[in-house]
Fold these 3 entries.
Entry 1:
Amino acid sequence: MYRVQESDPTQQHATNVAAEHFPDLPVETIDWEVSHRAQRQAGVTKYDPTTEAITIALTWKAYEHHGWEQFSSTVRHELIHAWQYHEFGDADHGATFTRWTDALDTSQHCERFTTPKWWLICEDCGGRIARYRRSKIVRNPEQYSCSECGGSFRVEESDGH
């Protein structure tokens, strides 16, 4: 993880958005980090309940893949979580989150920015689940079933695209 510089446009964008939508959120106290390892999430907001410290970590690969326009949406998404932590000590994608997505022109989930290594494919409904690690379900798909229809899974290696 690397720290974001105070003069960074990301932090300035967050300050502007917070001033307009979350005036009680002390955005200047949020720690900002850049992850060069994350593959599945464009950003994550962390909260330490003992100190009430809020950290927003943003993924460099997501920025490289999407560019600023899409990535600024991720910043706004994570700001909603920061506000939730500040106000309630907890954050999720429930009602308090979704009421802000339209106003902040953001969404609940980010678009994929890296190619998964494997796909779990349901033999019955054809549902596809991306997997980035060789987890238990990738190693032993016969021990799991599809949450949508109860069907069996097969695993396919990604073609890298």
Entry 2:
Amino acid sequence: MISIELARALRTAGLRWHPRSGDGFVIETAEAGGEVYTVSEMTVEVHEHPGGSLIGFNGTTEWALDSVDLGDTLWLPREDQLRELLRDGFVSLTTERVDGDTLYLVTAVIRGDERRYEALSAVDAYGEAVLDLIVRSLVADDEAGVGRES
């Protein structure tokens, strides 16, 4: 599972979540306790309302939670979802042993430059690559004046 810190950094950088079945998330409130939930048509569904999306909990008895605002959740993207976000920029995933630890290395082409990202898990290595893609895209757009009024 992706680290909470990296998931937050991706959200802060601009990665948006459109919940679908199988997605993992945590609720970011003091009462939630950091438990990981999975969107599923059986127990956790997304309900669209004019005021925004709510995640509904059907048949849960652990605590009296009927729904939670999407803004109070943090998406925990999976390895396959992060790889998909890299699109054609993804080159490879390899492993390397360093001091008894396995490092996961993602190689990706980001804005024309081949770069390597390493982490102790494959999902975090992919997450670092996606974070760099977002940040470099924002910087390049800013330098090009994209989004500025004339």
Entry 3:
Amino acid sequence: MSITATNQATYAIDGHVGHVGHVLQQTLVDLLDLTLLAKQAHWNLTGPRFLPLHQQLDTLADATREHADTIAERAATIGTAPDGRSNTIAATSRLPQLDSGTLRDDTVIKRITEIPSTTAAGLRQAIEATADDPITQDLLITTGHTIEQQAWLFRSQQ
């Protein structure tokens, strides 16, 4: 059995960067938007369940931000420049958005359950689309596990 080194040039030749890079870019955008939405809810939360939800929203934002960094670094590794600019996020995110202003705790639970669930559905599509790249797929599976768990933690409060 021989082992062949794979590098950016090999990815570029076989079209890997374009396909997997696009998948990683969309995943990055959705994760960054989820991070921002979690913080938006965190800052504007009101109601009797304020403290536990406030803390749980921070946990969601922190976990999502860490995964976004991993996904961006994977994109850079395979030769795709990750784009996390605010205008890119606003233009290409697939996530439902929150209303501005204060948000009641029951509304936050409902909406924050929907948003990670949408993110998780996108991750499942990304996992299927990257079957030819097990390293990227593994990162997406790990990210999907975290996002689905967070959605469950919010959903269980409804």
